[in-house]
Amino acid sequence: MKNLDIVAFIKNNKSYFEDYITRSTYNSNAIEGSTLSYADTYAIVFKDDSFKVSAKPREIYEAINHKYALNFVIDNLQNEADERFIIEIAKIINKNINDISGFRNVDVFIRGAEHIPPKKEVVQNKMLYFIDNYNNAKHTSIFEKIAYNHIEFEKIHPFADGNGRTGRLIINYELLKHNIAPSIIPVEDRSKYFEFLKTSNVENFSIYLEDLSKQEAERLKKFLL
């Protein structure tokens, strides 16, 4: 795997591209409550007219938007994770759902979470600090960096909506940027994932993400045959 250009493989291997995009989109949206099935998701994002989909307009947009946001990430790995880059991901995620032009100017709450995100007045400064730390702070490993920053990002909840999806895309931006197989958090692990966020357990979350990446690397090998 070390000699494989993973990003080029994703772009050029149609079977794996469709597999990765569909699984990433299905699981990330399902974590947020989408009722679309895996088959629904594939049919929507790859316009498979042979499969009839009956779904809410919002869920259809969520699937389409996630695909395009993931494509945006894959096509912009050379860019630094700066304010413009992060906002653009959130804008794509929210297209035709919410009007996102920047960091939130409203107070938000996270359903089912004890943590209350910071007030709208401090979000801009919180994110400026987050971005500086993201790009400059030293970490013991790439997975520790990703776990720490994902937890911090979700604590800030910088957008009116789409924070989870945006944050999980940033996870894979960082992995793909370093030619590491992506981590797709399965909806079956939703409770475990939320517990990592709730407890800010960077160490265990980083181990979990690394394990997911290793699983994805093994899956990817099957498409090399």
TrEMBL record:
Active site residues per record: 157
UniProt entry tagged with the keyword 4Fe-4S: no
UniProt-annotated site: Important for autoinhibition of adenylyltransferase activity, residues: 32
PROSITE patterns: FIDO (PS51459)
Pfam families associated with the record: Fic
Name the record gives this protein: Fic family protein
Keywords on record: ATP-binding, Nucleotide-binding
Molecular function terms from GO: ATP binding
Residue stretches making up the Fido domain: 81-225
Superkingdom per UniProt: Bacteria
